[in-house]
Amino acid sequence: MKCDTYIVEESLLVEELSSIPVSRPRVLLQAPDGLKKLYDCLGGLLRKVRDVEVYYSASPSFGACDIPLEEAALLRPDLVVHVGHAEYPLAEVEPPLRVVYVPVYYDVTPRAESLLEIEGSLSSRSWRRVAVVSPLTERLVAKRVADYLSSRGFDVREAEDRPILGCDYRSVIALAGSVDGFLLVSGGLFHALGAALYTDNLLAYDPYRGKVWDPSVEARKLIRERVYTVVKLRNQALRRAVVVAGARPGQFRPSVLNMVAKLLEKIGVEYVVTTVSYLTLDRLLTIDETFRPDFIVVTSCPRLPLDDFHDFHKPVLTPGELAMLVWGVEKYVFPW
Fold first, then answer.
1. Do 131 and 159 touch, CB atoms closer than 8 A?
2. Where are the beta strands (DSSP E) in the chain?
3. Which of 56, 131, 266, 276 could connect to 175 by a Cys-Cys bridge, CB 3.0–4.6 Å?
4. Can you say whether the dihedral through the CA atoms of 320, 321, 323, 328 is positive or negative?
């Protein structure tokens, strides 16, 4: 089904909705802000399948790891429809409610001049074996770019079974030894910066703006800042830390919490664990004023210390950066 400039993968949604054993199911729709414009269209799709009572979540959504438990607890929906992502692959705790994950794909054909620019940029780097990777929403565009490059004689590898996430770049790691470089098809800086933390051999194509660019400059700058933070912290007397645990099923990671606890115990640092659904600057300031730690470790989402709190007045670390601190490693470790 087509909604705006997106194709909705509707089969699983129809199957789930049809199997709910009540006469008029209550449904909670959730999407990232950039995809909330599809709500009207998706609501119409739901009503074509059967008579439903639909609620639309206006809260922010940062991925499949972020299911709106508070809203669901009040509404008690028969089904939560999470739009734009597949089921979160790193979850250690299942959501305590019925959730269906509905992928949508940006449906645009890259302009000829963009394809020529991509081809020229890859050729100028002497990359003939190229891995084309993307988040789930840009997969269709990535496939079209990959087909073009194949027709131009490039040896193209595609990570179709594992789209990249802001915290999960296993597809990049898996292909790194078999290609000359990577082409990332994704909008904006977020995913490009994450991928560039894993590999220097990266070119990015933004299909929304028709922009071809190299994210390695931004990545190298960020890595220098993060390594400096860790090294500086290593030279201080450390007594106390706060560990932040996410209060969403996908962001509560018991194995990561256990790893962080062992690392802190190894260097004799006292710690407390706080829980929070959305870690904002206000929450971080409250945590700091309450416990007065020397540093903070975020286990809910590794991108928060990198993107949102890199300039906080105290060090805010990812679990990987804590491992660097404890083990004396200066090669950057991201994310877990």
1. yes
2. 2-3, 6-8, 26-30, 53-56, 79-83, 99-102, 104-106, 129-133, 155-158, 181-185, 202-206, 211-213, 240-246, 270-276, 295-298, 316-317
3. 131
4. positive
Q: Give CA–CA dist 225/20, Å, rounded.
A: 51
Looking at residue 333, its pLDDT comes to: 83
Beta bridge partners of 211: 206
Q: What does the pLDDT read at residue 157?
A: 92
Summarize pLDDT for 229-245 with one digit per residue, the tens.
999 999 999 999 999 99
DSSP 69-115: HHHHHHH--SEEEEES-PPPTT-SS--SS-EEEE-EEE--PPPHHHH
SS3 160: coil
Give the C-alpha separation, 259 to 243, whole Å.
Answer: 11
> Region 16-44: what's the mean pLDDT?
95
Task: Read off the tokens for 206.
Answer: 């933004």
Cα distance between residue 85 and residue 102, in whole Å: 6
Q: Express each pLDDT in 178-192 by its tens digit.
A: 999 999 999 999 999
For residues 269 and 293, give the distance between their C-alpha atoms in angstroms, rounded to a whole number: 10
Of the candidates 302, 266, 271, which has an alpha carbon nearest to the alpha carbon of residue 287?
271
Question: Among 138, 167, 324, 295, which Cα is nearest to 230's?
Answer: 324
